[in-house]
Amino acid sequence: MVIPVLETLDITGKTITADALLTQRKLAEYLRARDAHDVFTVKDNQPNLHADLRLFFEKDRGQPDFREPPTPGHGRIESRAIWTSERLNEYLDFPGVGQAFLIERHTVEKKTGKTSTETVYGVTSHTRDTADAARVLGLNRGHWTIENGCHYSLDWNWDEDRCTIRTGHGPANITALRRFAIGVIKAKSRDTVSATIPRLARNLRLVFDYLRMTENSRRRPPVRLAPAG
Prior knowledge:
Helices cover 38% and strands 20% of the residues. The chain contains seven helices and seven strands; from the N terminus they run αβαβαβββββαααα. The protein starts with a helix and ends in a 19-residue tail after the last helix. Pfam families: DDE_Tnp_1. InterPro entries: ISAs1_transpos, Transposase_11, Transposase_11-like. It comes from Thiocapsa rosea.
């Protein structure tokens, strides 16, 4: 559970974001007791809450409260829109709801023109006085920025989500080594991590160069030329 980790941090006035796995009453109550805010994604692991949000927002919800302009990146163009409501605050059986929200993400693949739409439901302890629709959307996106920047890199390059190392300190050790490798690559390579890893796999000498374990990779003192004459 994440609560033991939060116990070591000063979270007063902070906003804690969580994906559906951590959308739990106990965590929401804990955050309110610590004077912190939350932004939770709601999925089928909270079936009643998810059903209530889906039923409410599936009705005529009108125009979104905020819409981001299309953003290109990673071979696709994405646009996001968010609808928020305080009308469910007293109805939903979940602690400290300040707003309910629906986020709709529309994606167009540049090469194929294929389109897709993803719908995400959620709740936050923020009221509209402390977080308008644009900020709620930004908080939700910020959560996945961490996911994409850290965990996504591990999973994409080493398929970590399907790693079969399970016993003892093995999972923590292999993750630490992979993070170390990513850090070294980012510091040394001018290319992306995913492009550099195959090159290192084909050239073991280059790995030692990266780790400064070869003569060519060691720093040498600058050569001082004697003055002429």
